[in-house]
Fold this sequence. Notes:
alpha/beta, 5-stranded parallel β-sheet, 6 helices, about 40% helix, Two-component response regulator, Bact_response_regulator
Amino acid sequence: MSVNQSSQQATVLAVDDSTVMQGLVKQALSNTYNVLVADNAVDALSVIYHNKVSVLLLDVSMPGIDGLELCRTIRSIPQFQALPIIMLTARDGAFDKVQGRLAGATEYLTKPFDAEKLCEVIGSVLNVKT
């Protein structure tokens, strides 16, 4: 591993109140990306302000501020309007997907997720050839 590897990797922030899901996302992505986790909206906002986050993975169902509200909040902040946001949630209804898009999500994936598909979608939103 070269010294520059971590600085070359894109940073993915996974926001999910489930530590199990955080672990699964880390396991799926840590070979390719620098993975940060947060378990609520307030921590997530702090992380994106203090780190160069390339992609945000958001769960919809979280206590307090849910993923849709967090997505809308992030979209209202000028410096984060172009940040790719992927909803990663158990809510898989057509209405849920429409709500995700209306809130500003770039992509909408459902749990349980396929690790290869997740990497593929992140790569596509980052315009990285996989």
